[in-house]
Amino acid sequence: MMIAYNFTSNIQKELHTLEQNIKNLVTAQNPILYAAAEHLFKAGGKRLRPSIVLLVAKATAKEGKILASQKRLAEITEIIHTASLLHDDVVDNCSTRRGIKTVNNQFNNRVAILAGDFLFAQSSWYLANLKQVEVVKIISKVITDFAEGEVRQSINLFNLNVTINEYIEKSFYKTASLIAASCQGAAMLAINNSKIACKLHLYGKHLGVAFQIIDDILDITSSAIILGKPGEADLKNGNLTAPCLFAIAENIKIKQIIEEEFSTLSDIDTVILMIKQSYSILKSQDLAREHLQAALNCLKYLDNSESKKDLEYLTEYIIDRLY
């Protein structure tokens, strides 16, 4: 059952301003580039990543006052995330995102790639203007991590020898790296305490990995309407995620079907059914919970505050997405 607590209630003003600013920050002179980037921003989304940044900022700033640089970092984080989605949709040949046509579907792959590159470039420019060299280094590495994650995923499609640890590493590069870096960066902008900043990096890392595991569970168990994008896409493309990897160890028939790369039309449905009938979903949920507990342990190093409680509730919300 979902938690009724609204963990963003104390940052509503900042989130409203962020919503306006991220659209204003997209200043492409070319109308096609602008339209492509704006298309995805208009679709909204949960704004989970900037919410995390703003809550970390509030929890570490003096008297809970979020700095202008921290607000800008939250905006930069959402721009980087959006850029990565544009590229992901091309790589995965995805047709819908957040319930609307993807940019590559609305325009074409070339426009989507260029729009993603444009947003990465804009985020780098705004990042440099923070004039905090260490924060720039940390956030800049995220963009290389995205590429590392995509390469790892691409070379391991239909690879039955992928381990859970390798899957978690890839999940860090593709999803958790941005959350971890932005949490650490938000803390560094407010305090001169490397221990707390590192603990918040770990918080973001574990939170991001758990988020990806749960996304992968939902890809198997939820409909396209709920997901806002086509379901079972990862499996169809040969991207073997936690539920599938756990199920392969239980059922050799799944392994045999995947080895043949779903040679018949009914193969996907057969594998999905066998995954659901195995213990793999429960094992994946347990793996996500382990990472969420590790994330919660990292928050113990923060002083008690409303923002700390909000971060704890947010962490619990991640696992409640399953129910």
Automatic annotation (TrEMBL):
Family named by the database record: Belongs to the FPP/GGPP synthase family.
Gene Ontology MF terms: metal ion binding; prenyltransferase activity
Gene label: preA
Record-linked InterPro entries: Isoprenoid_synthase_dom_sf, Polyprenyl_synt, Polyprenyl_synt_CS
Biological source species: Compsopogon caeruleus
Keyword Magnesium included in the entry's annotation: yes
Xref: SUPFAM superfamilies: Terpenoid synthases
UniProt feature coiled coil, ranges: none
Protein name listed in UniProt: Prenyl transferase
Domain of life of the source: Eukaryota
Keyword terms, alphabetized: Chloroplast, Isoprene biosynthesis, Magnesium, Metal-binding, Plastid, Transferase
Single GO BP term: quinone biosynthetic process
Cofactor(s) the protein requires to work: Mg(2+)
